[in-house]
Write a structure and sequence with these properties.
It is a single chain. By secondary structure, the protein is α+β, with helices and mostly antiparallel strands. The protein has one domain. Helices cover 29% and strands 32% of the residues. The protein has 6 helices and 8 strands, in the order αββαααβαβββββα. It has a 6-stranded mixed sheet. Strands 1-2 form a two-stranded antiparallel ribbon. The relative contact order is 0.16.
Length: 157
């Protein structure tokens, strides 16, 4: 298994070290994104880790990432990933900024740029997951595994 971190500048370089996900290409050729467990990195707290699971197991996220690694590499890219950009507990969650919702960005990484391809938001108040629609400038509710809300409610009181 090969682990690689990429960054475009010093600020992102620091964030790359704090990124709780790794993207790898096993011999099968499919990209794997796996959450690094607490023993490997103590960045994620239970609350943001379950919200991340809600996003990454949603049918929409799976649809967007199916075959994405192959497409990125075909376009001379390096990898893809997801980042937590905003959180109600920004310091605790190590997100980039404060937000009333958990805000995620799905991105493609190239040698000269990072291309944001989709944005997701989980609202802890109404317990709904949204995808941002840039054409209509609005959030659209999307499906996710509602059984994960039991875990969320237990960990995020």
């Amino acid at each position: 298994m090969i682990l690689t971190a990429f960054a475009c500048n010093d600020r992102q370089s620091k964030k790359a070290k704090d990124n709780p996900y790794e993207v790898t290409k096993p011999t099968s050729g499919k990209a794997l994104i796996r959450k690094i467990d607490k023993a490997e990195q103590k960045v994620l707290k239970p609350c943001d880790s379950i919200v991340t699971e809600i996003v990454t197991t949603s049918p929409r996220y799976k649809k967007l990432t199916k075959g994405l690694y192959k497409a990125v590499v075909k376009n001379e890219g390096i990898s893809f990933g997801i980042s937590l950009d905003g959180s109600p507990n920004a310091r605790k969650d190590n997100s980039l900024s404060y937000s009333k919702t958990y805000d995620f960005t799905l991105f493609e990484m190239y040698t000269d740029r990072k291309l944001n391809t989709a944005r997701f938001s989980f609202n802890p108040n109404n317990k709904k997951l949204y995808e941002y629609d840039p054409v209509h400038n609005q959030l659209k509710s999307i499906k996710f595994d509602r059984n994960l809300l039991l875990k969320y409610n237990a960990l995020c009181k």
